[in-house]
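User: Please predict structures.

Assistant: First:
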Amino acid sequence: MQAPTLRDVYEAKKVISQYLPRTSLHFSAGLSEYLGAEVYLKHEDHLALGAFKARGGINLLAHLTPEERQRGVITASTGNHGQSIANACRIFGARAMIALPEESNPLKVAAMRALGAELVFYGKNYDEARGYAERLANEEGYRYVHPSNEPLLISGVATQTLEVLEDLPEVEVILVPFGGGSGAAGACIVAKAVDPGTQVYAVQSEGAPGGYLSWKQGQLVQAKVETFAEGVATGTGYELPQTIIRHLLDDFVLVSDDEIRWAIGLLIEKAHTMAEGAGAAATAGAVKLRQRLSGKKVVIVVSGCNITLEQLSYAVKVYRQSLM
C-alpha cells in the first residue's frame, strides 16, 4: 500500500465531481462567539448519503476492473462506509455485500438495504464484522474493501479537505473525527502539501481509543470499543492511515461520549446543524481545545448526520441538563 499524494487527490476530484456535489463551508457566527475563534463548518452532512464516506466509495469503484466488479465487492461497516460502497456499487453495476455488527444503527441499515446491498450481520462490534468479511472474501473470491487500508478511499475522502483549502486558503486549524483514520489521513495529505503550517487535529471517542493509542505508541494497538458513536467505534489503528498521520498529524484529542452528545446539542443550538455522534466528535474536540483555538481560523468537519431519534433525544437531554 502506497500513501496517496496530492496529485492522487486531484485525480479523485475529477472522478467524484461527476457524481457528487461540492459541499458547503459555512461560517458559524454562533460557534465563533462560543469558541472565541473564526469557525467554519465543512458540511459533509449535506451529501445525499449524509456522510463524507460517499466520496471514497465512488473513487474506489471507478478504478476497479470489470472483472472485480463482476466478482462482487465485500466490506465491513458500522454504516456510513457501507452506504458509500453500496451506493458506488449501484452506480457502477457491481454486487455489494456488507458485514455489520449485530446491533447496528437501524437508519444506516435501512439506507444500505435501499441502495441494494446484501447485508450480513455478524459479531458484537465492527472489528468482529470486519474479520468475518475478510474470511468471506478469501473463501468466495470477492473483492474485499478494507475501510481504511485503501489508497483510493483515502484519496477520495481527502477531496473534502481539498475543497476546504480552495474555499478558505488561510485556514489555520482543521479538526476531523477519527474512526479508521481515512478522513484524518486525507486531511493531512492535502493540508500539509498545500501549507505545512496548517494544523490538523484528529478527535476520537475515549470509549474506543485504538486509533489514538496506535498514533501515540507508534504501533498498531488494540483497545476497548465502548462508545455509542458507531462512526468512530473501531478497536484498533490501521496500517495505511497510521503511516500517513504518524508524522503529519499535529495532535490527537480524546473526548467522552457525553462530550460528543453535548456537542450534538451545541451544533443544533449554535449552528442549526444536526450531526450523528461521529459527526459531532470534531466539535467536541474544538470545545476541549477552546483556549488553543482562540482567535484562529478554524474548520470543523461535520462528517455525517445519520443519527437515530433515540440517540438524538438522549443527546439533547444531556445538553439541556448541562445548561440548568
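Second:
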Amino acid sequence: MSEYLVEVEHLKQYFQVRSGFKNMTLKAVDDVSFCIKPGETLGLVGESGCGKTTVGRSLLHLYNPTGGTVRFEGEEVTKKNIQRMRAKMQMVFQDPYSSLDPRMTAEDIIGEPLDVHHLKFIVCDEPVSALDVSIQAQVINMFEDLQNQLGVAYLFIAHDLLVVQHISNRIAVMYLGHVVELADANELMSDPKHPYTQSLLSAVPIPDPKTARKKNRIVLEGDVPSPLNMPSGCPFRTRCPYACDKCAESMPDFQEVSAGHFVACHRVGEIN
C-alpha cells in the first residue's frame, strides 16, 4: 500500500487552439509530477497562466489529461471510475458566485460534503484570493480546523506565498506548465534554489520598513513567453540571469538536491 493518497506522474494537459489560420497546441501542463500524503497540504504557486488551475482540474478529470497518470488511494483515476472517486475528492472553485449557495455559510458549504461523503482530498483553487485579509485568515483557519478534525488532504492553489506557507506542509512552484521546485514549506521560503522561486520570494512584502529597504529585490527582465510559442530547453531561460547554452538545449531534470527538496535547473549547484 502506498504511503501517498494522491500520486501524479508525468501529467500533461494540452489544448488545441486556433491562432490566425492554423491550429496550434497549447501545453498548459507539461510533465508535472508530485505526491500528497493523507492529511497533508501541498501548496501550488506561480504566476497567472502558469497552469496551476489546469493541474487541479486535470486531477479530477474535469479536463481529460493528455498524458500521464493520477492515482488516488493507489488506484489509477480513469474515465470509468472518476464518478465513483468524486465521492472522495472534490474541488473548491475560484469563483464563489458561480459555485456556492449564498444561503449557506462557507463552513457549512465545505463541511457538509466532508461529513456526508467522508472526503479524503480537496483541490482548493485560489479559495481566498478575492477576500479581505482578515476574512482570508478566518477561512484558512477553517480549512485547518476541518483538516485536523477529518484528516482531509488539500492541494492548495494560490499566488500568495505567505498564505501558502501558512497552510502548507510542502510547496510546489510552477512556471509555464512545469514544476520547477518542490520542498518543505519552511525550507523553500528560507532557502529557495531555483532562480524563479528566488525572484518570487524577493517580491514578498516585509512589514518592517528598515528590513524591507535592505532586501535585495530580484527583478526579472522580459515578459512571460506565450505557451503557444515556448522557448527551447528550460522554459525560464529567457528571463533567467544565469541562463547558459545548455539551458537552451534541453529541459533540466527535476532532481533531488537535498532530502525532499527537488529543483529543475541545470545550474542549481553553481548558483546556490
